[in-house]
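---------- Forwarded message ----------

FYI, see the Beta-lactam-binding protein with PASTA domain record below. Original note from H. follows.
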Amino acid sequence: MADSLTDTTTVPELVGLAAADAHDAALDARLLAIPQNARHTGAGRSIITNQRPKAGATASPGDTIMIWVDDPAAGPSTDEGPDDDGNGGGGGGSRVPDGPRTTPTAGAK
């Protein structure tokens, strides 16, 4: 049995796969794929357009792979994922939530 502190896995190539297949491939590598944009569909029609870390990287079992997905039926996504050109573009990714919002109470004056 491998020592859990030195146990590693290789990040699979998810770009180009259907979302359902990408999730399965990540799980097979003992990793979890987490969508970073709202284009994900439960029916698996979405296609992975970007991932971080990139394929071939070393990870620990249980680590997450951030994925960006695009639904071909909805047209191209405007969120291509992080800026990986190395020119300090600041990246991309998901937006930080604004925080809780107040909901009016029924019957309040």
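H. also flagged this: Residues 9-74 form a domain with the Trypsin Inhibitor V; Chain A fold (CATH 3.30.10.20).
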